[in-house]
Design a protein that fits this description.
In chain A, 39% of the residues lie in helices and 18% in strands. Chain A is of the alpha/beta class. In chain A, strands 2-1-3-4-5-11 form a six-stranded parallel β-sheet, with helices on both faces. The longest helix of chain A is centred in the last third of the chain and has 18 residues, at 292-309. Chain A is elongated. At the A-B interface, strand 1, helix 4, strand 2 and helix 10 of A face strand 1, helix 4, strand 2 and helix 10 of B. Strand 2 (91-96) of chain A pairs antiparallel with strand 2 of chain B. Chain A binds a DNA duplex (30 and 30 nucleotides) through helix 2.
Chain lengths: 351, 351
DNA sequence: GGTAACTCCTGAAACAGTTTCAAATCTGCT
DNA sequence: AGCAGATTTGAAACTGTTTCAGGAGTTACC
């Protein structure tokens, strides 16, 4: 266990200089700083453990400044994680990795400086390499909501592919021929999976894939309403819509009822659910479901227990299957597809 | 700025003993600890500022172990606060005050030990004295969701009394004579206010107060459904219901539609909203609204700015008024009140 | 009763990293 | 060249913490 004085001797400077390099960026000339940092690495110096009265878990966001993108999923993650941590008698530090800057030596040291003993990591888009780097240092961490091949990385996530396929099959089995999909504009691997599952299921059921029936919108309630407007005003409208996000599902249902249709008589709807939203609408909607706050809870509690044990022995590589719940928004298609003008006027007479 | 050595001299012990008293509870005999603590107070010693690379804000929960009671409001608070803090480039430490134990000297020291420079406090029921104690030490803190007479306490909260009255008046003005209220079983000052506002508004409009029309349930979606069942099966059912919680409102609407009634034709509904729930249901519901995550955002940003300034100069004593939004769930009452059996059968014929 | 063994408590001294202060060095300008 | 001012650096002093050994008290055994 080398001290700053050892490093100082190694770099042939005073201990004061080492201390300054480590804590007061910009106060030491560049060449000297380099020499000291090399000595730090050579001697294997690492800053002392911060004597904290309480143990902290980090809930770490990676990639870009974390601003407005905090959606329902993240709200569930943050509050689920905070709650679980408090139950385990840990405190939770919510932080953005970018705001901490690149680590001086290792991420382990970086986290130690803040007082974080273990991290639940949530990556937005980028930051996968970061997760791997942290994991490979052996720092106790779990990534939430993403999957990794690298065996060093612990993660907890959901896989919605099978149930996305089941959702579309369910509609096909009821007799729907023209099944539309409403999907988030911003592409990510999750939504790409769902997109693919939709096409696979159509093909498996021998239904034609019509690109017109895929609508890309912002995944909020207005987006869902827009999708309904657009789809139902087509010359040959769908009789069922598969919404791949919770809020767009709710918005779609609201808009459908607003223009005077009955669900599921006139239009069948399958949605996605992050929590309990499907039980709140009327009718309660058929959905591919995942419990996101449970994800955070699992990750946090596992981490807390690991830290309590001392040694970081375990691994956690858990891909939860979503579950598919049939509720009251899906039924056989109407004899005649219902067509509605964008303003809400029914265009085709009923049979 | 006295050091441990000064304290040691004052208490006539060694610096080592002082250090032990301050950090290793139970390692020092009781009488010596007392002597040292008295010396600590006498000399005005306070532990050194923890040199953290990042500044931390505390989101502090008081009173009892924080467990399952994390409702939608708290989820909004935690995620709103975390997001705001990250934007201000602070980290948030979520902690429960009880888990920290009683402070050795002052709360200021306690927080400093953890690295918390300012606190957003959310109290569950008890803990009001605690907030005052913290505020009176001059520690930068804002209480969220509660009001204080003590001028030392900074707070941000909502007042729903005026709009609760307006909600009931709105129904009365539409011609409703029998207006029911669905309220949370667990009493707190907020709900007591709403209860009183309901009675006041009835009286102001010259309507009779019927205790039968007040239903107490758990404030979740099932509770709302139960309330509808109970109220609509009364011999003389109400023509309007005032729900005083967001989830019970949604549950009430769902149940009403489920038993085949039309809203607002057969039953008018006014609810409460914490966020954007009112826009998600069909029909979007008329509601007394507050934006709870905004509450957290205001508190957190104000705190962050205070800390950036250095001196804790300002005060923040903000009672937001809720706002009342008329949507599509309220209209004139039906000619004949609709009565429904608990199983969902209509009991009175329509006019 | 004496003594050995043991635990608990405490202070001296050593140790950690940081900060102060003054000297040394560099920079830019006459 | 010479000088004022800023920058950079190390020696020493200063934090709080920890180690280690000794003293005080207690118990166990002869």
């Amino acid at each position: 266990m080398p001290s700053v004085r050892d490093v100082a001797r190694h770099a042939d400077v005073s201990p004061a200089t080492v201390s300054r390099v480590l804590n007061k960026p910009g106060m030491v000339s560049a060449e000297l700083r380099d020499r000291v940092l090399r000595a730090v690495r050579a001697t294997g110096y690492s800053p002392p453990e911060r004597p904290v009265s309480n143990d902290h878990l980090g809930l770490v966001y990676t990639g870009g400044p974390v601003t407005a993108e905090f959606g329902g999923f993240d709200a569930a993650v943050v509050s689920g994680s905070a709650q679980a941590a408090l139950e385990e008698r840990f405190d939770v530090i919510v932080t953005g990795l970018d705001s901490l800057g690149p680590p001086l030596t290792t991420y382990t040291d970086l986290f130690r400086t803040i007082g974080i003993r273990g991290a639940v990591i949530r990556t937005m888009g980028e930051g996968r390499e970061l997760c791997e780097a942290i994991a490979e240092e052996g720092f106790p961490a779990v990534v939430i909501g993403d999957r990794f091949d690298n065996p060093a990385v612990n993660y907890v996530c959901y896989d919605s592919v099978a149930d996305s396929r089941r959702a579309v099959s369910h509609l096909a089995d009821l007799g729907h021929k023209r099944i539309a999909m409403c999907i988030h504009m911003v592409r990510d691997s999750d939504h790409d999976d769902r997109r693919q599952a939709y096409r696979d299921a159509l093909e498996a059921k021998g239904l034609e894939y019509d690109p017109e029936l895929t609508v890309e919108v912002i995944a909020d309630s207005n987006g869902g309403a827009t999708a309904v407007n657009r789809l139902l005003s087509m010359a040959s409208p769908p009789t069922a819509i598969f919404f791949t996000d919770p809020l767009s599902t709710v918005g779609g249902i609201r808009r459908t009822l607003e223009i005077g249709l009955e669900i599921p008589r006139d239009l069948s709807i399958v949605g996605f659910d992050d929590g309990h939203l499907r039980k709140l609408t009327y009718p309660p909607f058929t959905a591919v479901c995942q419990d996101s706050s449970r994800l955070a809870t699992i990750a946090t509690k596992w981490l807390a227990q690991q830290l309590r044990m001392g040694e970081n022995v375990g691994t956690l590589r858990l891909t939860n299957e979503t579950f598919f719940e049939v509720n009251r928004t899906t039924d056989v298609p109407p004899a005649q597809p219902v067509r509605v003008s964008p303003s809400g006027q029914r265009l085709t007479p009923k049979t």
